Every structure is written in structure tokens, then in C-alpha cells.
Amino acid sequence: MSYLQKIRSLFQKPLSAAEFRRCVFSALKKRIVEEAPVQEELREMQSIGESEAFDGEQEGKFAGLYLRIEDYLAKEQVGNRVSKEELRGSIAKDCGVERAAGDFALLFLSEQSRRVKLFERFAGEVLQRSKDSLGQERFNKILDVFEGEVYLEGTVKDAAVDWGVFDKKMHEAFPGSNERVNATERFLKTVLGAVFSGLKESLESLRAELVFRDAYQQFRDRLKFLDDTSQVLLIVPKDILKEERVEIMSKSTLIDELRRRNQELEYALAQLSEEKRKLSEEKQKLDEALRDLQVVDRAKSDFITVVSHQFRTPLSAIRWNNELLSEEVAKLEPKQAEALSAYTKIANEKIVFLVNVLEDIYDVLAIEGKTAKVEKQPAQLWEIVNDVLDKFKDFAAGKKVALKFDRSTASLKEIKIDKQKIKRVCEILIRNAIQYTPENGSVTATTQEVDYQGKSALSCSIQDTGIGIDPADGDKLFDKFFRGKNAVKMVPDGAGLGLYLVRYFVEAHGGTVKVESELDKGSTFTFILPLF
């Protein structure tokens, strides 16, 4: 009995991902002549398919090999050509794709069935990621939505959604393919809307959206062999992931969205001009400075670029114009200058905050996308620390915090490190220390040679007299998106990414980070880097 016949004989039984892969391999092998130039791909597929350590990366590689062979069969092989649709249909029928587990099987489903599966898997991934942030009580309320629908009773088991049962219940309630797709889309959109609302209550709006963005990016990376994963954006709340949503918009919808955004921008600019005009109609120089700000209007034509995350250039322009505006304000009469400088100071603080958050986000995306590389070269650690302290000198003075560098233990030994990444580590730790230290407090940096795991290393400590860290927060301190309650109370703005990046960059150098803290008395963050 052939392998395909054995598979057919088990028609009523679930099919594991491994069994399905072997069936696909068998189907391909039967169609390819011996002299075909895809024998290497076949051998690699067989090797990957039989591997016990099969993971998501290997599944993506297996799918890529299949697509190359599929393309060959559709375009190259003479006398035994088969269209991609015909090949997939044949494999789906012979291998029982509807019963198969694993992501690879999605490639062979009909468009409607695949969309339903994508909806289910993405919703499951968002629920899993959001569980800790939502808290058990809020999470249970969201699960109650499933049980609240009569046709979905029994879908929730052991405080989790059984997506196999969910799929079966939806098939029973909506036997028509299009009807089932639409019903699944409507229901899961409601569920994810409730998830986002819950996240916003627990986190900041930006951080809540980042949970969805992070889930979507990793979901797409995992299923990059499919070309329709963006369809899951249909079940995401419409107010988030707007940039990513462009790829599923029709041309007319995109034009309407651009027009709406342009109108919003024009209205905002008109309001700004009117408010500034009322502040001082008599000051020609201030009016000219305000007119210079109208260059922001050019951002209307850059909407698609903004959608593609090109924020750095616009933010730099705003920051530059704000600095020019500050200079012009300083030339006004003392009373007017004092009133207006408060606005420019607030604007500058928010701009700097956005720049820092964007830098953190880009670094996190590089880490998650596995493009963050450590390029080591000889450097002096104390010089990097000294440069960063100089950079934050004015910031500390504005906060009335004394900034010190104790050079008494500094080592002059060279260390092999990625200077830019270790500079980021120092910037994050020193900025945090200043931000969370009350007026008249101090922040002190020290460097020294230490022993680490039996080898020579250099350490850098940043000690502050700030608010300290709640012992209950110690285990979560370096988690992505986490911020302690006392930290949020003192500094409301923040994405909770800085310490996550610190740990990643230091550990990428083979080092470690540790913290000592006492609530309301201060903290000391120390990172250690091997010399070589």
C-alpha cells in the first residue's frame, strides 16, 4: 500500500503536521522526473520533514522549498506540467488538508477556509500575548463572550479558547463558506475590540497598540510563505495599525483616507495659526516664525511615507523649528517671552520623548526581526560613559539633579564592544536615573575592572538617589513594556522598552545586568562586559 493510500485510509482521523508534510513530499516526488533540476530541493524537503526538531523556522524553509518546486512544475518541466492551482487542489484532496495540523497546511486550503484559519490563529495569538496585561478577571470576561453566543457553547476549556471546537461550532452554525467567513470576521473583531479596550485600561494607548503590532509582525514573519496574511487586519480594531492597513485598502478607500487626513491637518494648522495670532498680533517676527511652521503642510503629500514609519525626518524638522521659535520668543518682551517659552519647552520635551520612544521601537523591531547585529571594536568604556554624561548635563541641570562621574576606579584597559549599542545602554540608564530622581538628588556613574565568570571584565554602575523600585516589580523590571506603578506616577510618559533593550544589548555582548534598589532611597544599575 502506497503512502498516499495509507493516508486516504485514515480519512476520518486528524492528520499531524509531520504526516501532512510527508504526504506532500510523496505527492511531489511522484510528479518529478529523475533529471529534473530540483532534486536537491526534494532531498532537503525530505531531510527537514523527517527532522524531530522541527520548528517555525524550518516550517517556513520547508514551505519555501515547496513553492520553488511548485513553480518548476508549473513553468519548467516539459511533458508533465501542472498548474499551481491544480497541484494544490490535488494535494489538498489526497492528503486531507482539512484535517491537517501546522501552518504549512494553510497553503493548500481554499481562500475562504484559509481566511477563517488565519482569523482564528491571529486572534488566539493576540489573546495569549494579552493575558498577563489584562489580568485574569478581565481576560475571563472576554472569554465569556464566546460562551455568551449559544452556537459557541463549549468553546472555552480550562480558561482558554479551544479553536478546534470553535471551528467545528462555526461550521455547524454557518455551513456556507462565505457566510462562515463573514460570521467569523464579525465575531473575532468584537473579541479583539474588547481585548484592545482592556489593554488601554491597563496600559497606555501606545503600548496597547504595540501589543497588536508586535503580534501582527511576528504572525506575518512566521507565515511569510502566504501572500494573504494581511487579511487578519480585518478583525483588528480600525483605530490601530492604520499604517499596516494600507495594503488591504482599495485605491478609492486610500484616496478617501488621504483626503480625510489632509482635511484634519489643514484644520489643525488653521487652529494653530488663529491661536498664535491672538497671542501677539503686533509682533511681526513671531508671525513670520509661525508662518515658517506652515511647512508642516508638506506632510500632507508624505502620508504614505509616514505610513511606512518614516518619522525621524518630520520629527527632526519639528524639533528644529521649535528651537527657532524658542530663539524668536526669547527676543520678545520679558512677560511675553516667559508665557510663550513654557509652550516651546513643553513641545520640546514631547518631541524628545517621541524621538526616544521611536529609537527604542526601532531597536526592538531590529531585535525581533533578527537584524540587530553586534559589531565589536576596541574602545574605552570610561570615555563612552563620560560622553553620555556630557550629553545629559543640561537635562540634569534642568531637573536640578547633580550629575557626577567618579573616575577613581576607572580602568584604562581597552574592551571590544559595539560602541553605539553600549552608548545606548548608558543613555537609557542615565536618562532613567535623572528622570526618577527628585530635585536636589544626585546621579553618579562609576567604572571599574571586575572578575566575571572567572575572566576579566569591565563594569559600569549608575547610582541614583531616586524613588527606588518596588520589590514586587523586580522580576518584571527588564520585561518588554513593563513600568512600575511608582515610575508611571512620577513620569507618566514612557513605553517600557528601555530596560528591555539594556538587557538585550548587554547580554548580546556576553555580559549581564543587575540592579540593587531600596524604595524611596534610590537604585544602582550595574552592567558587566567581558573584556574580549
Structure keywords:
two-stranded antiparallel sheet; globular; 9 strands; 4 domains; alpha+beta; 21 helices; 10% strand; single chain; 532 residues; 5-stranded mixed beta sheet
- The first-level CATH class of the largest domain is given as Alpha Beta
Count of DSSP-assigned helices = 21
Q: What string gives the helices and strands in order?
A: HHHHHHHEEHHHHHHHHHEHHEEHEEHHEE
Second-tier CATH architecture of the largest domain = 2-Layer Sandwich
N-C termini distance: 60 Å
Task: Describe this structure as you would to a colleague.
The strands form three sheets. Strands 4-6-7-9-8 form a five-stranded mixed sheet. It has about 525 residues and is α+β, with helices and mostly antiparallel strands. The protein contains 21 helices and nine strands. The chain has four domains: about 5-110, no CATH class; about 110-250, no CATH class; about 270-370, no CATH class; about 375-530, Heat Shock Protein 90 (2-Layer Sandwich). It is about 60% helix and about 10% strand.
